[in-house]
Design a protein that fits this description.
mainly alpha
Length: 470
């Protein structure tokens, strides 16, 4: 195993969404490609917004996607004593200082700067203070360099330069004693031996602050890779209105994990013109040399198309397992029940071409598994007219004398169409409605072969519901 070590470090203030899932995926792929380790770290220092529910949801989403981690989950709230030791060290070395400015004072100065049109930054008035302010519990600020530049060497963006004069003396410990993100992330990455930091480019502006903290401690700086943003079709930042819902919601909407993984990796990474990859191919082929610098556009229609392709290529026995929760959800079966396995394996290959999601597949399986299904009333009025009754009676008599095989069913239909001088479509639609409740289904002869004698029972039910011709 190589010395490469990466981490995915979500903040549990919400569910795992598309952007976070892609970041986790790129970290996971790089670790697996390089024979390194993948760490899951929960950055929960924002105790007012972080919840155990969100931590569970994030882990559930990652497990569903198959993004297994080698270490963790590690929680920052369990490491406060460690952070305090590092803060004390910076204070002793005069690389940090106590700030006695109240939130109200800081807000007042911020408003004044905005009115004056000057940069909104802390004015460093406590930086050289020699004594405490009585009755005030201070925060702790890090001393940033006052001049010069700092360079970020990025695997995706190349070298990015920042002016130190534009970087604030950031708070590294709040007055309530809790540490802040930009500080603890450095301590954690050092202590956990993280060699490469792969994250969204919304973190790029945090990087110069973190580099100076590395330098203050004398630590080796990891390699950075900042992933371009994911935008909606309107080129605005991805949000819920673009369909950017949680990863587990995609699971509940009938998407396959491998399809979502395939789609996420193509949001920024490419390998020639290839669109569909197995997970093994992704691990083998992934590299940051093929990650683009431009933002990616999230296209829900493309994801749906890709999911349909994955459903078509997934073996029937696997789909029969994946579709089970959706059969329970749509009322076809009860929780704990198991449909006839042989029936499922025969039916599923006939249905995948019309199934974009597992919800679609479950809806079509319903009429195979259960004899209780809704009939499209509009279709029934159009196709189950009184003159069809004799045709269905004749056909059913023919079918009952067969083994319900595809070829014998086809012959029974031919005998009926010849007898009544009608076309196949004139008979097929009434039979299709009888067997499925609707006008869309697999080939009618395949349908009869899978249902067997149940076909005749359903046709009989329809015959009894059709009014007699006048």
């Amino acid at each position: 195993m190589s010395g490469i070590k990466v981490r995915f470090a979500p903040s549990p203030t919400g569910h795992l969404h598309i952007g976070g899932a892609r970041t986790a995926l790129f970290n996971w792929l790089y670790a697996r490609n390089m024979g390194g380790k993948f760490v899951l770290r929960i950055e929960d220092t924002d105790t007012s917004r972080s919840t155990d529910e969100y931590i569970g949801s994030i882990m559930q989403g990652m497990r569903w996607l198959g993004l297994d981690w080698d270490e963790g989950p590690l929680r920052q709230t369990e490491r406060f004593d460690i952070y305090s030791g590092y803060i004390d060290r910076l204070l002793k070395e005069n690389k940090a200082y106590h700030c006695y400015c109240s939130p109200e004072e800081l807000e007042e100065r911020r408003q004044e700067a905005m009115k004056a049109g000057t940069p909104v930054r802390y004015d460093r008035r406590c930086r050289e203070r020699t004594g405490p302010v009585e009755g005030v519990v201070p925060s702790v600020r890090f001393k940033m360099p006052l001049s010069g530049n700092v360079e970020v060497a990025d695997m995706i963006k190349g070298t990015v330069t920042f002016d130190n004069g534009q970087v604030d003396d950031l708070i590294i410990q709040r007055s309530d004693g809790t540490p802040t993100y930009n500080f603890v992330v450095v301590v954690d990455d050092v202590e956990m031996g993280i060699t490469h930091i792969i994250r969204g480019d919304d973190h790029l502006n945090n990087t110069p602050k973190q580099l100076h903290i590395y330098e203050a401690f004398g630590y080796k700086v990891p390699v950075f890779a900042h992933l371009p943003m994911i935008l909606g079709p309107d080129k605005a930042r991805l949000s819920k209105r673009h369909g950017a819902t949680s990863v587990t919601a995609y699971r509940d909407e009938g998407y396959l994990a491998d399809a979502l993984i395939n789609y996420l990796v193509r949001l920024g990474w490419s390998y020639g013109d290839q669109e569909i990859f197995s997970r093994q191919e992704l691990v083998k082929l992934f590299s940051f040399a093929s990650v683009g610098k431009s933002a990616s556009i999230f296209n829900p229609d493309k994801l749906l198309w890709l999911n349909a392709e994955y459903i078509k290529s997934t073996p029937a026995d696997k789909l029969s397992e994946l579709v089970m929760p959706f059969l329970v959800k749509n009322g076809t079966i009860k929780a704990g029940d198991t449909p006839d396995k042989e029936l499922m394996l025969k039916a599923i290959p006939q249905l995948v071409e019309r199934s974009r999601t597992l919800i679609d597949l479950a809806a079509q399986l319903r009429y195979f598994i259960s004899d209780e299904y809704e009939t499209d009333e509009k279709a029934a009025r159009k196709f189950l007219r009184p003159e069809k009754k004799k045709q269905l009676v004749f056909l059913n008599e023919k079918l009952r004398s067969t083994s319900y095989s595809h070829d014998e069913a086809e012959q029974a239909f031919k005998s009926t169409t010849d007898e009544f001088g009608i076309k196949l479509k004139d008979l097929a639609q009434p039979v299709r409605i009888s067997l499925t409740g609707g006008t869309a289904s697999p080939g009618i002869f395949d349908l009869i072969e899978i249902l067997g004698p149940r076909s005749s029972d359903r046709i009989d039910r329809t015959i009894n519901e059709i009014e007699d011709p006048e």
